[in-house]
Amino acid sequence: MAVEVRYKVRGCTASIAAGSALTEWIQGKSRAQMAAFQAAIVDQAVGGLAAESKHARRALRRGGEAVIGAEQPPLGAAGRFPSPG
């Protein structure tokens, strides 16, 4: 379970807002719950991302994959983190 979540960021406003939303969402979640993450969760939390800001979701995906385990396969086409082992 994610007891404490934090991140260090430098980037555009969309990346900062999306990262903040993701850390709030992750708090208290198990690996299995984190594996159910979908990019729409961040979009909803920040009030939607403009088309030119969708890169923020890709950065979150990479970070999320690292959180649930580097041994996991990459994010699937459905926009979800892979299920833990």
Task: Give the secondary structure arrangement, pairings included.
Layout: H1 13-26, H2 31-35, H3 39-45, H4 55-68
Instruction: Please tally the helical runs, counting DSSP H or I stretches of 4 or more residues.
Output: 4
**Major sheet details:** none
Order of helices and strands: HHHH
Task: Estimate the strand proportion.
Answer: under 5%
Radius of gyration using CA atoms only: 12 Å
Q: How far is the N terminus from the C terminus? A: 15 Å
**CATH topology tier name:** Sufe protein. Chain: A
Unreliably modeled segments: 70-77
Structure, described:
With 85 residues, this protein is mostly helical. The chain has a single domain, classed as Sufe protein. Chain: A (Alpha-Beta Complex). The chain has 4 helices and no strands. It starts with 12 loop residues before the first helix and ends in a 17-residue tail after the last helix. About 9% of the residues have low confidence.
Short key terms for the protein model shown above:
85 residues, 0% strand, 4 helices, globular, mainly alpha, Sufe protein. Chain: A
Concise synopsis of the structure shown:
This protein is mainly α. The chain has four helices and no strands.
